[in-house]
Amino acid sequence: MSSNVLLGVTGGVATYKSVEIARLLKQKGYRVRVVMTEAAKAFVTPLLFQGITGERVSDSLFDPQAEAAMGHIELAKWADVLLLAPATANSIAKLTYGLGDDLLSTLCLATSAPIFVAPAMNQAMWHAAATQANIAICIKRGMTLLGPGEGEQACGDIGLGRMLEPQDIVEQLLGEKQEGSLTGKCVMVTAGPTQEPMDPVRYISNHSSGKMGYAIARAAHAAGARVTLISGPVALPAPEGVTVVPVITAQEMYEAVMEPVRDCDIFIGAAAVADFRPKKCADKKLAKGDVVVDLVANPDIVASVAKQYPGVYVIGFAAETHDVVNKAKEKLFAKGIDLIAANEVGVAGRGFHSDNNALIIVSSQDCELIELDTKDSVAQQLIENISKRYKNHAKATS
Ligand code: C5P
């Protein structure tokens, strides 16, 4: 990576961690210039960043000392990369709306350097629909999300939204993670069930625990990929280093996938998407009795990705009770996808809720078996298999 890092610091408890980010980058020989918002200065003084970076800290759009009094343009051109850390919910919202009401937001608009965003906020703010919509826009516009991580938060809540540790942010920013079979690749994974509401208290869903999809996301991250996990409602911790986008319904999952997947190399649909949803969600709880619920089909996400983005390598899952390979092949052709990872369900000790699984990888040419093992081990073998096939496929189509 080139040498000039513009570190945008917004105001939150995680602001103190940005000092360490600046120090690590300096230690590695990068020039670091820091731009702070007013709120950031309430947490850490500019003097501390100045001491660490050896550069004057900028905080005002109207800086008479900046070249031609155009500090934002000068800094925007200087940056080889812009890292927003911590990125508060407010600063992310400003990014998506293109606001320029202070130096940092104006720089984000004016720079042509790649933008990396390390979110830091309370878990409820991270899960808020507005934040999730903003995050989806950031990803769609080509910004790279670093985290957030999961754990205890300053307010005492536990959940997603913590800023990643400085060392992780710097490693990911500089692409220093160990070379893996998917280094430099972008992978999107769907996981878990979807819930399709029928009335305010009831929904249609299925038994998916999300364990397989989460194991796949972890394995893809360990193989060096930048991973986005679109997750239905599950009771699992967010995988470290993976961007998790929580959704509830199939329609929400479809919307969270369809635009951002455009920039991905590989899409793995491990979610058990509900095939149908109630045509109408009643406003009030339905009374007991002869309730008739009309169902409509949900969009098929893997098939839509394959159809709309032929450049993306698409893997689907098939859970079958019998005649697994033939049924998987039928699905492969019907959905127009590259691979199916098929598993037999209804067999004790594997599949739904179990920690173990076995898969048959089915392509139009061949089948390969991944024998019964832990889901983590099966996921690692699946990722290695996919990366080998993806490379051959990329060679053949280039
Ligand atoms: O058609 P079936 O549900 O058996 O196919 C399973 C595969 O298709 C899985 O990869 C699942 O994630 C995906 N799927 C989807 N959208 C749906 C239904 C299934 O992406 N609406």
Short summary:
By secondary structure, this protein is of the alpha/beta class.
Task: Kindly describe this structure.
Helix content is 36%, strand content 24%. The chain is of the alpha/beta class. It is globular. The protein starts with a strand and ends with a helix. The mean pLDDT is 91. The structure holds cytidine-5'-monophosphate (C5P). The site of cytidine-5'-monophosphate (C5P) has 15 residues, from helix 12 and strand 16.
Q: Judging from the principal axes of the Cα atoms, what is the shape?
A: globular
Output the strand order for the largest sheet: 12-11-8-13-16-17-18-19
Radius of gyration: 23 Å
The assigned structural class equals: alpha/beta
Main CATH class of the largest domain: Alpha Beta
Describe the largest sheet.
8 strands, mixed
Bound molecules: cytidine-5'-monophosphate
Helix coverage percent of residues?
Answer: 25-40%
Unreliable runs: none
Calculate the mean pLDDT score and round it: 91
Give the tally of β-strands: 19
What is the straight-line distance between the termini? 26 Å
CATH domain topology of the largest domain:
Rossmann fold
Number of helices: 14
Which CATH architecture of the largest domain is right? Answer: 3-Layer(aba) Sandwich
Q: What count of structural domains?
A: 2
Strand percentage lies at: 15-25%
CATH superfamily of the largest domain: CoaB-like
